[in-house]
Design a protein that fits this description.
With 270 residues, this protein is of the alpha/beta class. The protein has one domain. Helix content is 54%, strand content 11%. Strands 3-2-1-4-5 form a five-stranded parallel sheet. Helix 2 packs antiparallel against helix 4, helix 2 packs across helix 7 and helix 3 packs across helix 4. The two termini are 34 Å apart. The C terminus is likely disordered.
């Protein structure tokens, strides 16, 4: 299976400037349009599944996040209704970020795409909340396979539905509020796994503010050696009080960076 991103960038490098620019614009447009079509087929059903009502609950999570930023501490994700609003509002942004990172033209992204083209991919999503990383990687995997199946043209996932794929994404999601996110993650993955036979996501507890060898991070520590892709989400401005406090003994970000070996790593923090 070819990597369409690497292939078209190689062709662009050998073409005249005008043709190269047009080729790369077409590639970028195809990647973004595919994401938009897949999201449009999932988001309305996700909202309906969660029965979200954007009123007081919307204000609740916004206030919680703003307060967390001011104080440099993690937001408290325990209000179920507010969590549902948060998940719906952040779905597009969080999924698009990782999806476009995977499709970017750089050595790390190329390595991640190489891993995604294998039969089964084991993913660890630390700080992954309701499973945004799982959905983003599924979208990327489906795009890579569908352009192979349709002679270079992306199939329309709205009218024809995404093709059945033999690629399976198996994601372990780790989060401080794992119990609170669990029903939302189950709703999202149920809507997104349909075209990827064998794909699944499971929820686990982890605290990203403390070292990897802490007892609380036992499940995460056990998972790391066997994974293919690691997605790390740690919001810096909401956790500055922990990052700047030496008495906390450090956090697991450095531990993971030193211990991942040859595993393809895809991460975001901001």
């Amino acid at each position: 299976m070819i990597d369409p991103v690497d292939l078209l960038h190689d062709r662009a490098a050998a073409a005249d400037p005008s043709s190269a620019a047009e080729l790369l614009r077409d590639l970028d447009r195809g990647i973004r349009e595919y994401f938009g079509l897949r999201l449009a087929s999932i988001q309305p059903r996700f909202e309906q599944r969660l029965s979200t009502v954007s009123d007081r609950n919307d204000a609740t999570w916004r206030y919680s996040l703003n307060d967390a930023v001011k104080e440099g501490r993690p937001a408290t994700f325990v209000d179920e209704k507010a969590l549902r609003i948060y998940a719906v509002n952040k779905l597009e942004t969080r999924c698009r970020y990782l999806y476009l990172l995977v499709m970017d033209n750089n050595p790390l992204s190329s390595r991640v795409r190489e891993v995604l083209r294998q039969g089964e991919v084991r993913v660890c999503s630390a700080g992954g909340g309701p499973g945004f990383d799982h959905l983003a990687l599924l979208m990327a995997t489906n795009f890579l396979e569908e352009v192979q199946l349709n002679g270079g043209d992306v199939l329309d996932p709205v009218e024809g539905g995404p093709v059945e794929t033999g690629k399976a994404i198996k994601t372990q999601v780790f989060d401080l509020y794992n119990d609170d996110w669990l029903p939302i993650m189950e709703a999202l993955t149920d809507l997104s796994n349909g075209n990827s036979s064998g794909s699944l996501a499971t929820m686990h507890y982890a605290d990203l503010r403390i070292p990897l060898d802490a007892a609380e991070n036992g499940d995460l520590r056990d998972a790391v050696p066997d994974i293919d892709i690691f997605c790390f989400q740690f919001v810096l401005h909401e956790n500055s009080s922990f990052i700047l406090d030496d008495e906390n003994g450090g956090n697991l970000g450095g531990d993971l960076d030193r211990g991942m070996g040859k595993t393809a790593i895809s991460g975001a923090a901001g």
